[in-house]
Automatic annotation (TrEMBL):
Gene3D superfamilies: Aldehyde Dehydrogenase, Chain A, domain 1, Aldehyde Dehydrogenase, Chain A, domain 2
Keywords noted in UniProt: Oxidoreductase
Keyword Transcription applies: no
Protein's name according to its UniProt entry: Aldehyde dehydrogenase family protein
UniProt cross-references to SUPFAM superfamilies, sorted A to Z: ALDH-like (SSF53720)
Record-linked PROSITE patterns: ALDEHYDE_DEHYDR_GLU
Length: 783
């Protein structure tokens, strides 16, 4: 069947641009600045200039942050209901002007009008409706949290308005104010949204929009008056932001690149899978961070399925994005087209088969045809790099375990799509894939109630859902943390090592790796002196090789993650019981090390903390969301993986337990650096662990210099997160900075102390959130 042209009128959008003389200033404090240094915004479909926008300066960013800071008490003083009414008005206005927004977005971005009209605008309005509800319920549902403060938000060009709604809606709902930077290529719908803010009654300074290139983003990231940075964009820029914010105390969420697998099993509905694939990789010209760019198809159906894919590609319509019958629009910019073409050429050079349907590309604008690449090795550039274009790389697998292995063979971990008629197979595969979102028999499903975000080099943090709201809040208990002095790590003794008796028992405390005591690889030891200056013992000085051995042991103990929460709870109870049986011994050790007048209090608190997290182990459940689409979305609280932990010097036993217990309760394995000043009580725990059915490798203890070992943990590629709570401001900043290499999650205490006896500061969901990550599994039902 032939399709005639079905153009969407652009008259209203062009009139709106003309009404602004096609020049825009900055939106700060509910007022427009005069246009200054200008840059062009062009239509990707034909290269025509649409408007000119202002390149913001550092001074402009300063004004925006000051306006946002002044507006905080006003916005928060309106209360949850007051904020909810304003956000509800924004949602209604988005719906009222949806056609104008959709056409303007298509003109500015190049995506088809069907996508902006039917996907982007409804979802954008949905986010403001949904988060208006969170604003209304904030005082009840988030009573133990407060707004972060001034939030800097930076978004990419692929979903300009939708990314704006993902960022601004939860920030406003929580009571924050915003300095927002849209993408340089696609700023026009943000300018239109600024007008809606005034109409909706958003107070001056609550939403500030500054335009320009990466220099503007850098100014926002580095501004000391910004309390949180929320960034969506490339992994490379995400690393720079992680490094720039290290040690600043800024809260950070990053939604970065992806190389998402699209897995088709032999029992799948192949025709349905083909349509899902179209939506997954050719939606928005493949310029989607979660695009299903890696097709993994079971070998028994490979050729049949690929033939169906090629036939469907032949019928994809590529052309004017404003034509409602088009499937594929224009790429955002010629630079993007050149990058995609270079990667496809590299595939040809490597001997891959590159197939493209016969289609005529428009003479003007930035266009690239839908492309299928087969015959690529798993290490090929097109199989590993995020192409960010309409390019699909296909591979085969034989068994479900091989499919999982191939799916996880990437540095990214954003999304995945699984196609099978066997629900048991689908629900077995979904948790095994290292991705923050898994769609079953569907693709690219989004909703404000369901969190979205990734693992590994796809970033950290979630957008949407309850977990997305928490990204814009701070636990009140953090404000109550004491500024405790840091215990001197290298206490000086006044006694020499006793050497008179050649048959004296060796007092060197060994490390604990893989369920066994271990001597340090370096063969060096360091003295540990008591509170009275007497030598208590010597401890091994751990090195990079000891960390390596401990990480290997932790990975071998992956069965702990697969164990039931009930079983993990039982082990924690056993640890508590065995510690209680030796309470006097541990109390004496603590008294000798620290001079504590009441060491029994710390031991008892440690036992209670073990019971506390044993109780949480099988109660930190996920949620089942019911999005507007037909189906449910199950939000699973998954273990992070292998966590490196640097423990505090104060309360050396309780601090150790308070960090290790929540981590292992949720199925993580840990490599722990005990208190550098007082390590003996932690090293004494090996016998407790051995008699408590704790599998070897779940807890590994490496004593030594905290700075050196933390540095190794932060740079180790097979460690998924690092926690540091020893009170070293410089050390915590270094952990955050070095973690940027693999974008591992961090939880650091900075220079402040923590009341380890307080359940509010050392327990609860806020701590468990650091020990887990949310995976949303979309499960459709019905027709």
């Amino acid at each position: 069947m032939d399709y005639g042209p079905a153009p969407e009128s652009q008259k209203e959008a062009q009139a709106w641009l003309d009404g602004h003389q096609r020049k825009f200033g900055l939106f700060i404090d509910n007022a427009w600045s005069e246009p200054a240094e200008l840059f062009a915004s062009t239509n990707p479909a034909d290269g025509a200039q649409l408007a000119e926008l202002t390149q913001a300066t550092d001074a402009d960013v300063e004004r925006a942050v000051e306006a946002a800071r002044r507006a905080l008490p006003v916005w928060q003083g309106m209360g949850g209901h007051g904020r909810a009414k304003v956000m509800y008005a924004l949602a209604r206005l988005l719906q009222k002007h949806s056609r104008l927004f959709a056409v303007l977005e298509t003109l500015d971005n190049g995506k088809t009008i069907r996508e902006t009209r039917d996907i982007d605008l409804p979802l954008a309005a949905r986010h403001f409706y949904h988060h208006a509800g969170w604003a209304q319920l904030q005082s009840e549902e988030f009573a133990d949290y407060r707004a972060v403060g001034v939030v800097g938000q930076i978004v990419p060009w692929n979903f300009p308005l939708l990314m704006l709604s993902w960022k601004i809606a939860p920030a406003l709902a929580a009571g924050n104010t915003v300095v927002f930077k849209p993408a340089e290529f696609t700023s026009l719908t943000a300018m239109l949204f600024a007008e809606l803010c005034v109409q909706a009654g958003v107070p001056a300074g609550v939403v500030n929009i500054v335009t320009g290139d990466g220099r503007v983003g850098s100014a926002i990231v580095n501004h000391p008056g910004v309390d949180k940075i929320a960034f969506t964009g490339s992994t490379e820029v995400g690393r720079l932001i992680r490094e720039a914010t290290a040690g600043s105390g800024k809260k950070l969420s990053l939604e970065l690149g992806g190389k998402s697998p699209f897995i088709v099993f032999e029992d799948a509905d192949l025709d349905g899978a083909v349509e899902g694939l179209v939506d997954s990789i050719w939606f928005n010209q493949g310029q989607v961070c979660c695009a299903g760019s890696r097709l993994l198809v079971q070998e028994s159906i490979q050729e049949r399925f690929l033939n169906k894919v090629r036939a469907r590609m032949e019928n994809l319509r590529l052309g004017s994005p404003l034509d409602k019958s088009m499937d594929v629009g224009a790429l955002v910019d010629p630079v993007q087209r050149q990058r995609i073409a270079a990667l496809v050429d590299s595939a040809r050079a490597e001997g891959c088969d590159v197939w493209q349907p016969a289609c005529e590309l428009p003479a003007d604008g930035s266009w690239f045809p839908p492309t299928l690449i087969t015959g690529a090795s798993t290490s090929a550039a097109v199989a590993q790099a995020e192409i960010f274009g309409p390019v699909l790389v296909a591979m085969s697998f034989r068994t479900p375990p091989e499919a999982v292995q191939l799916a996880n063979n990437t540095v990214y971990g954003l999304a995945a799509s699984v196609w099978t008629e066997s629900i048991s197979l689908a629900l077995d595969i979904a948790p095994a894939i290292k991705a923050g979102v898994v769609w079953i028999n569907s693709a690219n499903q989004f909703d404000a109630a369901c969190g979205f975000g990734g693992y590994r080099e796809s970033g950290f943090g979630r957008e949407g859902g309850r977990e997305g709201m928490l990204e814009y809040m701070t636990a009140l208990a953090e404000d109550a943390r004491p500024a405790l002095p840091v215990v001197e790590a290298k206490a000086k003794g006044n006694a020499k090592p006793a050497a008179a008796d050649p048959f004296a028992i060796d007092r060197t405390a060994k490390m604990y790796i893989g369920g066994k005591q271990a001597r340090p690889d370096s063969a060096y030891s360091a003295p540990v002196f008591g509170a009275n200056g007497a030598l208590l013992a010597e401890v091994g000085v751990g090195s990079r090789k000891d960390i390596r051995n401990a990480v290997e042991a932790a990975h071998k103990a992956s069965g702990w993650t697969g164990a039931t929460a009930h079983n993990r709870a039982q082990v924690l109870y056993y640890i508590a019981e065995n510690l209680a049986a030796r309470a006097d011994e541990f109390a004496a050790r603590i008294a000798a090390m620290t001079g504590s007048k009441n060491p029994e209090k710390e031991v008892q608190a440690s036992i209670e903390r073990l019971f506390y997290y044993a109780a949480w182990a099988d109660k930190y459940d996920g949620l089942a969301h019911q999005p507007p689409t037909k189906g449910i979305t199950v939000a699973l609280n998954e273990a992070v993986g292998v966590i490196g932990i640097v423990c505090p010097n104060e309360a050396p036993l309780l601090g150790f337990i308070s960090l290790v217990a929540p981590a292992i309760a949720l199925g993580n394995r840990v490599v722990v650096v005990p208190s550098e000043a007082h390590p003996l009580s932690a090293l004494d725990l090996y016998q407790v662990f051995d008699t408590s059915d704790l599998p070897g490798g779940v807890v590994n203890i490496i004593s030594g210099n905290a700075d050196e070992l933390a540095r190794t943990l932060a740079t180790h590629a097979d460690i998924d997160a690092v926690w540091r709570h020893d009170g070293s401001a410089e050390g915590c900043a270094e952990v955050e900075r070095l973690s940027a290499g693999t974008l591992k999650r961090t939880w650091v205490g900075g220079a402040k102390g923590r009341d380890w006896y307080s359940a509010a500061q050392s327990g609860g969901r806020a701590v468990l959130a650091h020990a887990s990550q949310v995976k949303n599994v979309w499960i459709p039902y019905g027709v």
